[in-house]
Design brief:
alpha+beta; Deoxyribonuclease I, Chain A; six-stranded mixed β-sheet; 6 helices; about 20% helix; globular
Amino acid sequence: MSFAIATFNVENLGARPGDAPDSDARLAALRPVLAALAADILCLQEVNAPRPDPQGARTFGSLDRLLEGTPYAHFHRAASTRPGADEPADVHNLVILSRYRLTGIRQLHHDFVPQWDWISPGEREPVRAIFDRPILSACVQAPGGPVHVLNLHLRAPRAAHLPVEKSAGRWLTSSGWAKGMYLASQLRQAQALEARLFVEAVFDREPDARIIVCGDFNADSFETPTRILCGAPEDGEDEAFLKRRLERLEMRAPVGKRFSIIHGGRKALLDHVLASQNLARLCGSVEILNEGLVDEAHAPQGFTGSLHAPVVARFA
């Protein structure tokens, strides 16, 4: 058995309403990155699906153009849909591309962690806490046996909208912004918990399941969402407990290469590949393709690439 899995946030691939279509220059900037990954399984985040005309169905036209002429054009595909609908969302969809057949395609959106009402301090009316987007999962029929793959894009650390605290897109008070940041962190951790509980359900059915959880976690390796997803502390539990822990494969990359974004000069690792113990033992190498990565706080106008570096893990 040998295969490679990669995760890549392609950053708003596909025009938003009112925007011009993605330029040939942008697609040309992304194609060499996909080629360098040489992945058998590719998890993408931020794939937009605009309507070609006001009455038309949403399509992944930019993704199709990006993949045209590459091996990925012929891969099996799974894509998320807008919760409660049978078509993709306008922005930030998840896509899994696989050389191998996909079965059991499913998306999770409050399947394990219910929506909840949150009352902001000093207010009486609750705010409904709802995940921004679903989690996409599929069972990849890889060589040597199936692999359960989860593709995640957790909420960014930006303040969640609070109607009474915002007007015309501007926060009215610093305390209101702080409350929005608190709710955003709760949503990010809650969705990480939803993914972890799904992983637990897979292990309940298949104690020796091979599992990979990857994507843009919007959290570094030792922040709470990533630790929730790993599922077990590293400082001593019984063997059965540790058997379900997912390993941070990016920790196998050279220390100086462990970052996937740069913001204001600060390097951070927000994009991850986690693997069950039985797969982690077979991981031969991990690369984070961050050579020449542009600082997102100082990206030039008209920048055509992605401000995220992809991560690829190879198993043999």
